[in-house]
Amino acid sequence: MYCVKTQSTIEDTIKKSHFIGIIAPCHSIAEINQQYQTIQQQHPNASHIAFAYHLKNNNQILIRCNDAGEPNGTAGKPILNHLEGNQLINVIILVVRYFGGIKLGAGGLSRAYGNLAKGAIANAHLIEFIDYEVLTFTLSYGQLTNFEYHLKQFNGTILEQLFTEIITLKIRLPSIHRQEFQTLFS
User: Fold this and answer.
1) β-strand 17-25 against 8-14: which pairing, if any?
2) Whole-model pTM?
3) What stretches in the chain show pLDDT beneath 50?
4) What 8-state DSSP symbol labels residue 30?
């Protein structure tokens, strides 16, 4: 599976309708909603803002698509097909349409939305998806340097740290390293 490193945008005009395809990384429903609201604010006069996403959340894959008022199955589903076909996860693709006065028909709409999704994916910087876990550790001050060294070796990051009589750390670690890392510090 793959994900995108940063947001990417493409544009196209089809029979006087202006389309904007946006692909962005998202790691939670809150980020999905924020991304959608941001695009709505940037394009308040758009006729339609169709989207699809794949999101891994608590070991579940959440999948959703929305036609945004276009005829059923002509916008969200073609976008979703490209997400699935490219094995993308933790990604949202939005396609903004400004209606140009010429109807495209169901087939034309499906091709337009699908091609914008395909173009947004082609324009994006794809990276291999790595599943992460959030873990909490308590350490003595003497263990901290060794812990940070090994955390870096395992491509983990510290999310939160609390220094009292002991050190409490919340870390993000690739799931494939969990067992080995916990063995080192348990």
Assistant:
1) antiparallel
2) 0.79
3) none
4) H
- pLDDT value at residue 89: 94
Which tokens hold the place of 177? Answer: 């390293």
- Could you give all domains of the chain from N- to C-terminal order, each with its CATH number? 2-128 (3.30.230.30), 132-184 (3.30.70)
pLDDT tens figures, 143-175: 999 999 999 999 889 989 999 999 999 998 988
CA 86 → CA 91, 165, 186, distances in Å?
Answer: 11, 49, 39
